[in-house]
Amino acid sequence: xxxxxxxxxxxxxxxxxxxxxxxxxxxxxxxxxxxxxxxxxxxxxxxxxxxxxxxxxxxxxxxxxxxxxxxxxxxxxxxxxxxxxxxxxxxxxxxxxxxxxxxxxxxxxxxxxxxxxxxxxxxxxxxxxxxxxxxxxxxxxxxxxxxxxxxxxxxxxxxxxxxxxxxxxxxxxxxxxxxxxxxxxxxxxxxxxxxxxxxxxxxxxxxxxxxxxxxxxxxxxxxxxx
Length: 226
What we know:
Layout: E1 3-6, H1 12-20, H2 25-33, E2 35-36, H3 38-46, E3 52-56, E4 66-74, E5 81-84, H4 95-103, E6 109-112, H5 113-122, E7 127-129, H6 130-138, E8 142-149, H7 153-165, H8 172-182, H9 186-193, E9 196-199, H10 202-217
Parallel strand pairs: 1-2, 1-3
Antiparallel strand pairs: 3-8, 4-8, 4-9, 5-6, 5-7
């Protein structure tokens, strides 16, 4: 089995969970070699180069995937998906975030991930948090990514269900490592992770449905290249 890893802080709890779980060493090692940014994982999953991954929610609708009610969900603020006004440039790393900006009618440079989080923390007045913008418009959470699988559905569903039920403690040495590598203080990382949930519950499903419907109405899904 192979799992594609999003190498962003927002997936750190899941990867700590996998590391502590009783999976085979070969499976754990494969994850380290399959890490990539969201849009690239979309492509790998479609080509069946990996069995499962948390991929952008817009790409998770592809007919060949089976989906699980686990994802990267922001109830309001997210801080790591932002748009800078006055500058127009797509972030090639995320399909969903670029389409979300269009659904919200926002023009600007979209940035996602740890780099976005760092930029937002340094000068929040320069950016719009797309999680906040969506909540103001719809009053429901936004699903940025959804666990999608090609095979071994039962295994990945059981794994995701177990993960959602656990409270994950991230060791200090891991936080310190991310602080050094990403340039984001460990206390800020802990506060940021409080904004993220991994359960696509009823309200999150409503948000996902509204987003996908809006993308279809604006004919934006046709712009997606997996």
